[in-house]
Design a protein that fits this description.
The structure holds 2 protein chains of 2 kinds. Chain A has 12 helices and 10 strands. Chain A is of the alpha+beta class. By secondary structure, chain B is mainly alpha-helical. Chain B has a two-stranded antiparallel ribbon. In chain B, helix 6 packs antiparallel against helix 7. The chains are: A alpha+beta, B mainly alpha.
Chain lengths: 349, 161
């Protein structure tokens, strides 16, 4: 069994069956750690990075995790498979496109992944469908404990877990959720939300993580502060002061659309569905844009014949690397846009 | 007031506390620079303490400060945005702490998970954390007598770790 057996399916975090997954697509918790006695990845030699990779890989593959995970050495993994892993949110673009000895350890159900020699020696994450931050954190803390049985991480009483970048020092935690906010966008309230989150010292980013524009009304919301608060405090604050209120605003905005703007809503939803069902050429950007309205239409009961499952499949499997992998050939942009349209028509037939 | 070295008027007035004894010095701009005391007009008090402390520790230039383990300089760190090794947190001391405080909403002390396998030296480490927080607060409050005393105590505790 290999992870690649699952590349034509979606991972568990995209199953759409988590709590409040009509608005919170997924929850993710990440911890950054460095091994004591070794220089940080960016500043060390190839030999040291190789040594660390071998060391950490053996520690994990010898632990209780061994039967539940796959190991990927990035230098032995093809370009396209690295891109696939990045599209599935299992590794970062930085790890996929980086150089030198680095690896990833990924659980069979894709809920846990551990990157080795990214910005820090170890970056471990758990991800789940819907709003499940506390649950995913609890699992990750267990993994942290497990690793600490065999590995001593760099830690100081003053600054906590020591990381390559001081913006991660202390807890080393990054807590984030992916939110779908089409109603807030349609009712022109996104600016207000963005401003409010800035005031709370939270990072809001578009779908693909750092430095991107929001596509398809998908927003990633995460903490910026990692020091001076406990992990659970950080999670609680994010939920209480940001996620909770934003969910309420989006729900309210959706309700208002149903009550006051049903024709406009239906028009947007059905035009989007119509284009997806009939286009012969379609870009990934346009796909995400249209899928956003279809997703909204399903959750508001305006579309009956399409499931969220289908929407999630289209969402993942029409991304560039997935398309290329599933069609087993190098496609240029026009060919890709053509194949994408074909795949979408197949799913919506 | 006249410069104690030459005949120009004194524009730099320095109060030094050495072994509990207060000593005042009055110098002109040129002579103060010769003596290794430099004043930046923008934030005089904090820079004065840094320079006072620096002159005692023979660290002449912040950008040349270096971690002896990984050989990363402060200037390199500012360019790259990432540190070289865990010892940098100690080696870059106060300037790094200022940066951390700015990035972390004022926080400079960890509150959260602690590794189960943590090694010893607990008491001195805790004392050091306490002293550092007090030094930070004293500088913020511009209480330089207190700050100098705390700095001395930190230098006393550090070799014991």
């Amino acid at each position: 069994m290999k992870l690649s057996d699952n590349y034509d399916k979606v991972g568990s975090w995209l199953s759409g069956d988590g709590p409040q997954s009509d608005i919170v697509i997924s929850s993710r918790v990440r911890l950054a750690r460095n091994v004591k006695g070794f220089t940080f990845s960016a500043h060390s030699t190839v030999e040291q990075n190789q040594h660390l990779l071998t060391f950490l890989q053996s520690k994990v593959m010898d632990s209780a995790l061994q039967d539940k995970v796959y190991y990927f050495c990035m230098q032995d993994t093809s370009d396209i498979e690295r891109d696939l892993l990045a599209e599935r949110h299992l590794i970062s673009k930085q790890l996929a496109c980086g150089s030198g000895p680095r690896g990833a350890i990924i659980s069979h159900d894709e809920s846990l992944s551990l990157m080795i020699n990214e910005e820090d020696h170890v970056r471990m994450q758990t991800v789940a469908s819907g709003l499940q931050l506390k649950e995913t954190y609890a699992i990750l803390a267990g993994i942290d404990d497990l690793l600490e049985q065999d590995v001593e991480f760099s830690y100081s009483k003053q600054y906590g877990y020591l990381t390559a970048c001081p913006t991660n020092v202390g807890t080393g935690i990054r807590v984030s959720v992916m939110l779908h906010l089409p109603a807030l966008k349609l009712t022109g309230q996104m600016d207000r939300v963005m401003r409010a989150t800035k005031d709370l010292k939270l990072a809001v980013r578009g779908f693909f993580g750092e430095g991107s524009e929001p596509i398809g009304d998908l927003f990633q919301l995460s903490n910026q502060i990692t020091l001076g608060k406990s992990e659970l405090e950080i999670i609680d604050e994010l939920i209480t002061h940001a996620i909770g209120p934003i969910i309420e605003y989006e729900r309210y905005a959706r309700q208002k659309l149903l009550e006051d703007e049903q024709s406009m809503l239906d028009d947007k939803v059905y035009r989007s569905l119509g284009t997806l069902k009939n286009a012969r050429l379609i870009s990934s950007e346009e796909t995400l844009l249209l899928l956003s309205y279809v997703r909204l239409g399903i959750y508001l009961g305006r579309i009956k014949g399409v499931t969220i499952d289908t929407v999630n499949k289209i969402f993942l499997l029409t991304q560039p690397a997935h398309l290329q992998y599933l069609y087993d050939q190098t496609l240029d942009t026009q060919n890709r846009d053509e194949y994408r349209a074909t795949v979408i028509r197949k799913y919506l037939a | 007031m006249q410069c104690e070295v030459c005949d120009n008027s004194a524009t730099v007035h320095l109060t030094e506390i050495i072994d509990g004894q207060k000593k005042e010095r009055h110098l002109c701009q040129a002579c103060s620079q010769k003596a290794g005391i430099t004043i930046k007009m923008s934030s005089p008090s904090k820079t004065m303490l840094n320079n006072f402390v620096a002159s005692k520790n023979d660290v002449s230039n912040l950008s040349e400060q270096v971690c002896e383990h990984c050989m990363l300089t402060w200037e390199q760190f500012r360019k790259l945005g990432v540190l070289g090794c865990s010892h940098d947190y100690e080696a870059f001391g106060e300037p790094l702490q200022k940066l951390i405080a700015k990035a972390q909403g004022g926080a400079i002390a960890h509150v959260g998970r602690v590794p189960e396998n943590i090694s010893g030296g607990a008491d001195n480490q805790l004392r050091l954390i306490q002293l550092r927080q007090e030094l930070h607060d004293a500088v913020e409050a511009e209480d330089y007598e207190m700050a100098a005393r705390l700095r001395d105590e930190i230098n006393h505790v550090l070799p014991q770790l």
